[in-house]
Amino acid sequence: MVQLDEAKLHSFIGKMLGDLGGAFSVPTVRLGLRLGLFATLDRDEPLTAAGLAAAAGGLTERYVREWALAQAANGYIDYDSRSETFSLSPEQAMIFVNRDSPVYLEGAFDIAAAMIEGEQKVEHAFRTGAGVRWGDSAGCLFCATGAFFRPGYVNNIVQSWLPALQGIEDKLASGAKVADVGCGVGFSTILMAQAYPKSSFVGYDFHEPSVREAQSHARTHGVEGRVKFVAATAKDIKETDFDLVTSFDCLHDMGDPRGCADHMRRILKKDGSWMVVEPVAGDRPEDNMNPVGRLYYNASTMICVPTSLDQEVGEGLGAQAGEAKLSEVIRSGGFKQVKRVVTGPFNMVLEARLSA
Ligand SMILES: C[S@@+](CC[C@H](N)C(=O)[O-])C[C@H]1O[C@@H](n2cnc3c(N)ncnc32)[C@H](O)[C@@H]1O
Questions:
Q1: pLDDT for the residue 268
Q2: Is residue 355's pLDDT more than 90?
Q3: What integer is the mean pLDDT of 37-58?
Q4: Dihedral in degrees, nearest 10, Cα atoms 18, 298, 289, 324
C-alpha cells in the first residue's frame, strides 16, 4: 500500500485552498470592478456595507455585504470588526483602482474569465489538433488581453524599453516611421505616438474587431492623424522602409513566426530595428516553474497555442518559449544580431538588427 506523507498532504491541501480561493474570487472581483465597489472604497472613508451600497449608486445592501465580506476574506479589502466597516489600503488600490499602476490587475481577472469561457472550444482542439481562432474562444478575449498588458506598457515602453534599443530614441524624437505589428487594440501604438509627436505609426493586426477598437482608442486620445491602424497579417504588410518595427506579446501567437521574421526583414530599412517584446521566460521548462511561468503556461494552453495552431504552419511556440528559441526564430528570418536588452517581471525585450 502507498504510504502517504501526512505533512506533505497537509501542505498541498493548504496550497490548493489558497489557489481555489483565488479562482473563486474571479467573478466577485470582476463584479466589484464593474460596479465601482473598489473605487468607492478608495474614494470614501471606511464604509459599512449599507454605506458602500449607497455610495456605489444605490446597490442592494445584502449583496454588497456578502461581496465585501468575501473581499475581506480574500484580503483584497480591509474589514474593521468593531465598526463593521470596510476600507481599501493604498496598496490594494494599486491593484484594483489605479489604472496606470504597473500592477493594476483588472485585465488579469478578465483573462481568467475569458479562459473559462473558451474551455469547450479548447477541449475540442485538444481532441482534434485543430486551433482556435484568435478572439473566437471568448466574447472579449481581445479586450481582456489589451487590458492585461496595458499597465506594463504604460510604465515601460517609453520609460525603459525603447531607450534600451540602440539609437532608437534619437530617431523617434527627430521623426521615424514605425510599424507596431500584432498591435491588438493599439495601446502600445498610441503610447508611442503620444511620446514621439514627430514620428508616424502604423498598427497592424489580423483581427478586425481589434483594429476597429484601436482606431476608436486613437480618436479618444487625439492621435488619429499620426496613427493608422490596418487589418493585415504580419506577413501581408505592404508598406516598407520602417525605421522601427515593434511586436508586443504576439510573435509567439503567430502560426508562422519564422515567416513573420522574414517579412519584418523586408519591411525594415537596412539600419532598422525590430523590438520583440515577449513574456519573460527561461529557456528550460524547469526555469519557468514559478508564479509568473504558471500564469503564462495556463494562458498559453488556453489562448496562445490554440491561436498559433489555427494559423498556417502552426509553430505553436507558446508563451514560455524563452530567449534562445525566440532568438533562433528571429535569426531564421535573416536578422544578424538578436540580443536581450531588458528583463522585467512579466516581459523581456529582444532587439533584432539586420547588421551586427
Ligand atoms: C496576446 S495579443 C497582444 C496584442 C497587443 N500587442 C497587446 O500587447 O495588447 C496577440 C495579438 O497578435 C495578433 N496576431 C496573432 N497572429 C497574428 C498574425 N499572424 N498576424 C497579425 N497579427 C496576429 C492577435 O490578433 C492579437 O491581437
A1: 98
A2: no
A3: 97
A4: -160
253 lines ligand 1 (CB under 6 A): yes
What are the helix (H) ranges across 187-322? 187-195, 208-220, 257-267, 291-299, 305-309
Task: Quote the ligand 1 centre to 268 CA distance (angstroms).
Answer: 19
Q: What is the pLDDT of residue 1?
A: 76
Nearest CA to ligand 1 atom 14: 182
* Phi, then psi, of 270 in degrees rounded to 5: -55, -35
Do 196 and 232 belong together in one domain? yes
Alpha helix positions (H), 58-118: 61-74, 90-96, 106-117
Reported as a single tens digit per residue, the pLDDT across 129-177 is: 999 999 898 889 999 999 999 999 999 999 999 999 999 999 999 999 9
Q: What is the number of domains present in the chain?
A: 2
| SS3 category, 139 | coil
Query: Is 101 within a domain?
Result: no
- Residue 181 in any domain: the answer is yes
CATH number of domain containing 263 = 3.40.50.150
Report how far Cα 318 is from the mean position of its chain's Cα atoms: 14
For 238-276, the three-class secondary structure string (H helix, E strand, C coil) is CCCCEEEEEEECCHHHCCCHHHHHHHHHHHEEEEEEEEE
Q: What range does the domain containing 13 cover?
A: 6-96
Closest ligand 1 atom to the C-alpha of 233?
Answer: 20
pLDDT band at 18; cut points 50, 70, 90: very high
| pLDDT tens, residue by residue, 256-294 | 999 999 999 999 999 999 999 999 999 999 999 999 999
Those residues with Cβ within 8 angstroms of residue 214's Cβ, 6 or more apart along the chain or in another chain: 183, 184, 185, 186, 189, 190, 203, 205, 229
What's the predicted TM-score (pTM) here?
A: 0.96
1 within a domain of the structure (yes/no): no
Closest of 204, 332, 350 to residue 277, by C-alpha: 350
pLDDT digits (tens, 9 = 90+) for 254-266: 999 999 999 999 9
Q: Does a structural domain hold residue 175? A: yes
Of all protein residues, the one whose alpha carbon is nearest to atom 21 of ligand 1 is 233
Best of 115, 187, 206 for a ligand 1 pocket test (most atoms within 8 Å of beta carbon): 206
> Per the structure block, which three cell numbers stand in for 125?
482542439
CA of residue 291 to ligand 1 center, whole Å: 24
